[in-house]
Amino acid sequence: MPESNDVRMTLNYILDTSVVRYGDLPAIGMAAETALTYRQFYDRIIALAGKLAAEGVKKGDHVAILAENSPAWGTAYFAIIRLGAIAVPVLPDLPEADVHHILNEMEVPVLFISQRQLEKIYELKQKKLRKIITLDDSEATQDVVEVIHFSDYLEEALAAEGTPDDEKKNSFPEIAEDDIASILYTSGTSGYSKAVMLSHKNLTANAFSAANLLDVEERAVVLSVLPMSHTYEFTLGFITPLIKGCKIAYAGKTPTPAILQRLCRHEKPKLMFAVPLIMEKIYKKRVLPQIEKSFFLSLLCRFSVGRKFVYRKIGAKLISFFGGDLELMGIGGAALNPEVECFLREAEFPYLIGYGLTESAPMLAGGPPGDDTIALGSTGRPFPGVRIKIVDPDPDTGVGEIYGCGPNVMVGYYGDPDATAEAITKDGWLITGDLGFIDEVGNLHICGRSKNVIVMANGENVYPEPIEHKINAYSWVVESLVVENNGKLDAWVYPDYEFIDEETLGQSRVERRDYIKKLSATMRKEVNAQLSSASRLVRIVERREPFIKTATHKIKRYLYSET
Fold it and tell me: In this structure, is residue 228 part of a structural domain?
C-alpha cells in the first residue's frame, strides 16, 4: 500500500495508474453490452472534467449524482473529483423529501440524474442549481425542468478537449489525500440521516486493502448489482476492480433471479458483492423447496453426512446459476441469516462476510479469504490497516461496544461538529454503536445494535436480531421485527403471501387466515423452545405490508419502536 501523505492515496492516482496498466482492457459497461476500455473511460472523464471546469465548477463545490448504476455514473463521479470538487452520491431509493433536503443542504450547482429520479426534483426550489444532466439522455416530463443529455454534453466535451494528454491532465487542481472526495448521507435504522465526509484516503485505504486481499486477475468480470451510491459497492465493487484491471458489468435495475441468471450466464463473473437479502431469497426460493418437496432429500438432510452431500450438490448448481466461474461473493451491509450461512459453508459456496459502516468507507472487518479459522456467524478478522477493540465488555459474555480505528475512518459529519465528536473519540476511534465480541482467534462477532437492545423487567438484555433470524428462516416469512410491548416481546411478521397462496389454493379467505394463524402458533412454539425464558415471544402479529428499509435492506426500526 502507498505510504501516508502520498498523492498515491487519491482516487485520481488510481485512475491514472489503471489507464497506464490496462488501457486497452475492458473497464466498465452494462451487462451483456460492449464495455468501455480503460482508455475510453479515462478520456471521457478528463474531457468531462474539463467542460465542468470551463463552466465554473471548482475545487470544493458539491456536485450530486442521483441515478442508478451505469458507466456514465462512474464517468461523472471521476470527473467531479478530478476537479477537486466533492461528489454527493444520492441513494436512488430515497424519497423526494430526503432528496430535496440533500440537494438544498449541499447547494449543488450541477446535478447528474436519471429518468427514474427526475420526478423527485420537479418541485425542488434550489436557486444555485444551474445545470441538470440526464445520464440516460432522458427528457423531463412536459418540460417541467430544463435538462441536458449526457451524451450531447460529453460529445461537446470531447470535441473541445481533443485528445487528452498529460499536460492537460495536470492543468487540474492538485488533489491531496486528505481532500474530501465524497459526502454521503446515511440511510440508517435510527432515523437521523447524517452527511458523512469521506476523504480520498478514506476510500483508497479500504480499496487498496481489498485489492491486496482479493486474488482476481486482470480481465476478471465483477458483476455489480448494488447501488454505487453506497460505500460498500463503491469501494469494493467499483474502485477495487479498477485497481485490479477487472471489467465491471452493471446489472441495471435490481434484477429478478431469472434476469440475474441470464446476465451471469453471459458475463460469467468471478466476483460479486451482495446484501444478505439476495442470498436469503435464493436460499428460500430455490434451495429449500428442492429439499422440502423431496422425501429422499429431506431424509438425507436429517443426518450431518447426508446434509453435506445434498448441500454440496445444490452448491454446485448455485455456482452454475451465477455463471459457473464465481470465485468469491462478498456479503455485507446487514447481518446474514445463520441458517443461510450454514448452508453456504456446507455447500462449499465461495462467500465472505464483511462488516462496516458508511463512516468507515466502509470495511472494518472481513476475511481473509480462504482462512479456515473464520468462525461461522462471525465477520472474520479486522480488515488490513484497521484496528478493532471492544469497549466495556460484559465480564461474563465479553460483549461490549465495537470501536474501529484506521485510515478509512471518516473526516466527520458535514456541518455537525457535535455529532462528529460523539462518533469519533479524541484519539481517532470510531464508535460504531454495534455490540459484539472478539473470539480467541481474532474473529469479530456482531450481536446487534446497542440502540436495539431490549432490557426486560428482570434486567436481562435481549438482542432482537438473533430472534428475527430464527423467524426469518421459515419459508412462509419474508421479514420480521421483534418489539417490546408492555414488558413482553411481540414479533411482527410480514408473510410471503405468494407462498401462502400456493399452499391454500382454492381455499376461502377465512381458511387462509386460519392457515396463517396455525403457522404463527407453530412457529412461536418452535422459536420459543430455542430461547431463554426472558426472550420468549408472547405474540406473533401478522403485518400486511413490507417494513420500510434502508438502502442495504435493514428495517428502519425507529419507525416502529413506539407504534
Answer: no
